[in-house]
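User: quick one, fold this
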Amino acid sequence: MLARFINAALMITHDASPPNNIRLLDLAQNHLQAGRKHEACRTCWSLLAQSPASGIAWGRLSTICDALGDVDGAALALKRYVAARPKDLSARGRLAEYLGEAGRIDDAISVAGQLLNEIDVRGGPTAGLLRGLGYFHAQKGSFESAEKYYRAALTAAPEETVSWEQLSAIKRFTPNDPDVKTMEALFNAPSKPANIKSRIPVAYALGKAYEDLGEADKAFSCIAEGARLKAAQTFFDAGDYSNAVAAIKVKFAAPPRPAAAIDNCSAQRAIFILGVPRSGTSLMEHILASHRDVCGGGEMKLLALAMAPLGDLLGPQTDDFLKNNDEAGSKPASRHAIAETYRELVRRRFGDTPFVTDKNLTNAIYAGVIARALPDAKFIYCRRDPTDLAWSCFKKNFGNRLSWSNDLADIARFIHVYEQLIEFWRAQMPERILTVAYEDLVASPSQWTDKMLAFCNLTQDEACYTPHKSHRTVATASLAQVRKPIYKSAIGASQAYRDHLQPFIDAYAELRGAKAT
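Assistant:
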């Protein structure tokens, strides 16, 4: 995070804000603390729309929006705060983060670049700020600029090994590369409790380098060490995950009504991309988002905001939602209100573009709500060879987000339950889910691009057939891969590691042999 490494505290002073603004801020805070996210969002949006706040009130509002997951609101509020307090360097660093998360990469680069110039004059840039600029440029596909910033970060703080991991993601290592020797020295340094945190990124970075060099045993050894260290800090309960998915199936047992019987939507349409991470979902989105009528939303969190009135997906509000799903309704938890909130959020970020892709990792969990609230929405499921998929997940450092990816047997359990959930949705609404095998997509990209465009009711667009030429920003783990012409080399990539992946292979085979639930 940019602001974390900027040595400037948030300036808390007391300037005059109209009493009604303070009352509304207090109300939003109270709603948030009580778990009433929908009410908190509406109160924040009211303040943003009317522009009644001033000075420090904007800073407080940005914090509330951030806690709600409303990064667009947080960016707008903090932009107004920074305009009033331009000397608050920490706030400007956070503003760059918010802008980047909202997909406004050029604005993020502008804010972070100006900040870098000022900090450089005052005593030298921080590694976090440099890495942030590197990541922004990497999202745009400007890998030369990204590498420049990552190397500057390493110069500023050699001990912050996350810079090596970010650099390795955009670099192809070759024999006798001096970077490999530097990382080996870091990785083989005596391990101490104090440097465990820095050991994890370099383990994954060095593993990536060895993979590029074709040294499979060394690559797996490094990555397994990174995964082992992460697994000690996180925990994945496969039983809880399986039980939650089983409960979703019970709650959504009645299929949604056919779209034509519910709605005749002419508003902005969403294409929800389903698939385990690293299954090809980024490539699929990149193809569709190259279309002139489509904006790529990536792993945006707007659906969770729209669904806030439901509370717990397995709670009583969802029962009411399902009971009344044929009625438009005006209550916040009605399908009509959820749909309008989602579309409003999408319009705030992307304008009036006709189609938006959404590849948030929770889409498979929420597909039952999506299908009812947005009867015009389409789903595309990307499926990949399970062993290739397992290796791709295992070798990627997802931080603490996806704890199941740190253990090969847990990866098997996660993939198996995920596949069962997708089969459940496919049985309920076969006409609304297109399944695309990654291997088929890369073998016959034109044929499957045709199928995806037709399924989404999109006209043909030549840009979709050369997605690597697109200049759109990409903020996923595959940001480097999608900039290349579609390639087949990832098919069978796990074969060189098959002996190491046996725990996954055995666990997955056992699960597949068990009776489906």
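User: anything notable?
Assistant: The CA atoms of residues 129 and 223 lie 27 Å apart.
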